[in-house]
């Protein structure tokens, strides 16, 4: 069955915004922007994958993409409010891929800090998640994740509720979960944080794959790997906010939003 895409006018947006809590409307805009930025990076997977966000002021209500819309089409108004089981809570014309919320619901429920959960199937993240060592400390980008990546073995399409407990255990308190042969999951207190975790991981994964490809050409291209003590130090600098380092997204997000505003095809994410 074809999904009908509804385009929202600016006047309809003002009406909807006045009917919602302002905090929820801001959350919707930030989440819609996150979808657009993932699409802009080419990390989306047609209508699949999800970025979910807890509705401000609630513990069991979430916003998620309408099933059938591309990431580049997502708007603040089109996001659907659901519960922990993926059931719709508002009168939306869109369907929701409830099965796809199995992973997200597990993390949201177990991690109070995971207000936003982001999941992608990008080629680089699938490739690195399928390697035994996962993301290796081969670049400064990778140091964000040194000692802070969980691993979840592939169990087939994530449709079974029983897999939730294993996903939670495997992720622990890490900022990312490498889903073997599947993809990557990142979490954040805001979409900005979850997005920047994806950005850094994706950059590090691409660098790793290029280095590994080059190393296959011969001993002269052998990879230089920093000592564990250096990796510990670099990771500590990032996570302890040494110098002028701030939480991921705190500085970058407004610039990324300005980038969307300059793109004539994307400012409608706010509607």
Structure commentary:
The protein is α+β, with helices and mostly antiparallel strands and 271 residues long. It has one domain: L-fuculose-1-phosphate Aldolase. 38% of the residues lie in helices and 11% in strands. It is built from 8 helices and 7 strands. It has helices at 10-19, 22-40, 101-110, 123-129, 163-171, 191-215, 228-239, 252-262, and strands at residues 50-54, 62-64, 80-82, 116-120, 149-152, 176-179, 183-188. α3 (101-110) packs across α5. The longest helix has 25 residues, at 191-215. The two termini are 26 Å apart.
Task: Label the structural class.
Answer: alpha+beta
Gyration radius, rounded: 19 Å
At CATH level 2, the architecture is 3-Layer(aba) Sandwich
Number of strands: 7
Please report the first level of CATH classification, the CATH class.
Alpha Beta
In the predicted model, the low-confidence regions spanning at least 5 consecutive residues are 1-8
How many strands, which pairing sense, and closed or not: the largest β-sheet?
7 strands, mixed
């Amino acid at each position: 069955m074809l999904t009908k895409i509804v385009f929202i006018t600016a006047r309809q947006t003002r009406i909807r915004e006045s009917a919602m809590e302002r905090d929820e409307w801001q959350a919707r805009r930030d989440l819609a922007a996150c979808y657009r930025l993932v699409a802009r990076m080419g990390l989306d997977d047609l209508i699949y994958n999800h970025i979910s966000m807890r509705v401000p002021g609630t513990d069991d209500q979430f916003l998620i993409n309408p099933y059938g819309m591309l990431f580049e089409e997502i708007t603040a108004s089109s996001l659907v409010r659901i519960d922990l089981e993926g059931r719709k809570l508002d009168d939306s014309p869109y369907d929701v891929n409830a099965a796809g919320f199995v992973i997200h619901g597990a993390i949201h429920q177990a991690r109070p800090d995971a207000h936003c959960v982001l999941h992608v199937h990008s080629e680089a993240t699938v490739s690195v998640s399928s390697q035994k060592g996962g993301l290796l400390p081969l670049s400064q980008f990778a140091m964000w994740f040194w000692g802070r990546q969980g691993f979840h073995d592939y169990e087939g399409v994530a449709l079974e509720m029983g897999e939730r407990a294993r996903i939670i255990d495997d992720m622990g308190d890490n900022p990312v979960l490498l889903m073997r042969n599947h993809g990557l999951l990142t979490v954040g207190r805001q979409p900005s944080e979850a997005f920047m975790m994806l950005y850094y991981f994706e950059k590090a994964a691409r660098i790793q794959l290029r280095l590994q490809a080059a190393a296959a050409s011969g001993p002269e291209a052998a990879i230089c790997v920093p000592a564990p003590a250096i990796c510990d130090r670099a990771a500590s600098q990032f996570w302890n906010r040494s110098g002028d380092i701030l939480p991921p997204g705190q500085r970058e997000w407004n610039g990324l939003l300005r980038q969307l505003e300059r793109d004539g095809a994307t400012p409608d994410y706010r509607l």
